[in-house]
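## retry 2 of 3
previous attempt timed out at serialization; input unchanged, resubmitting
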Amino acid sequence: MKRVWIVLTALALLSGSAATAAERNATQSAAGGKASSVAKVWQSKLDPVYMLDVEKYPKFEAEILLKNGRTLRFCCVKSMMNFFYQPFKYPGYGVGPRGQGIDKLYVRDYLDGTRIPAEKAWYVFGSRLAGPHGDDLIPLSSKARAELFVKRYGGTRIMSYKEMRKKDFGLIKYLDM
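## retry succeeded, writing output
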């Protein structure tokens, strides 16, 4: 048991040093006056919550735009909402409690890949379709599209953004079991 703890601690330290190296590179680029390259350097290909390659799952991609101009990319809605509800678990991104520092949330319509604001999307819960990290909420741009999705892939519930947010973090924890 002691060895497992040591290995996990070492992995945590290594992942933390990689994040600080990326931030150092971004700061160095900013000193050169290239603002667009700063955003590219800071935007990691890895999901900050599950550490999965975001580009490997384009149909599930979600984003958080921060007030400081940076963009956080996620492999799925569940991951984005996990970050949204618990930003204290992911220090170094400039997000405070209750979403301070977050400007906008975006998701992709699963059927056609259109980028839409998260608050305008409809979410399917309980479908046969698994996301990059297991059960997930599938975003669609309209309720009609969500109903079509349910006919094809199943689903136990269609929720608006407000309904999803009313479930608070309990829904995300349930999906992550």
